Amino acid sequence: MVTKLNELIIRPELKGDFEAVSKIHLSAFNQSFEAELVDNLRRHSLFAKSISLVALFKNLPVGHLLLFPVFIKGDRTVFATLSLAPMAVLPDFQRLGIGSKLVETALDEAKTSQFGSVIVLGHPGFYPRFGFKPASQFYIKSPIDVPDEAFMVAELEAGSLKGIAGTVEYPASFFSA
Known about the structure:
CATH topology: Aminopeptidase
Largest sheet: 9 strands, mixed
Number of domains: 1
Order of helices and strands: EHHEEEHEEEEEH
Helix content: 10-25%
Radius of gyration: 16 Å
Shape: globular
Structural class: alpha+beta
CATH architecture: 3-Layer(aba) Sandwich
Number of strands: 9
CATH class: Alpha Beta
């Protein structure tokens, strides 16, 4: 088990990690959707602009997080943003702060990108600590029916969503993995 988070290494995903990342998602979710989603998104033309991170403990991949480009489409505007999805940690390593370290690292990495925000459909008790707020506060809607408090957005720079409103458009891969 992880006894100290300083023993944890978070780094960009490498090709050699693909099988381990699939196993992380399969173990964490007990289904194949998220693993297939990651595989499908790797083949998408926008993957080059994504941020894919792996958490390692003693050289063992124990967690993964993907930030993938999506768009907020308004009446007259299209705004590029990142979607935090999916994120997973092996069951034996959950509730140790690894998911939090993955999110913190991913948001730090995203701040150096051309994107101004990150969207997430996630647990409303977890993501607000990282600056996520209900997307509805910014007039941003989900393309699917989800609880308002679970569909959130974080500005990477204060005011980056000023004047942005619309519905998030995900690649078809998000719905057909």
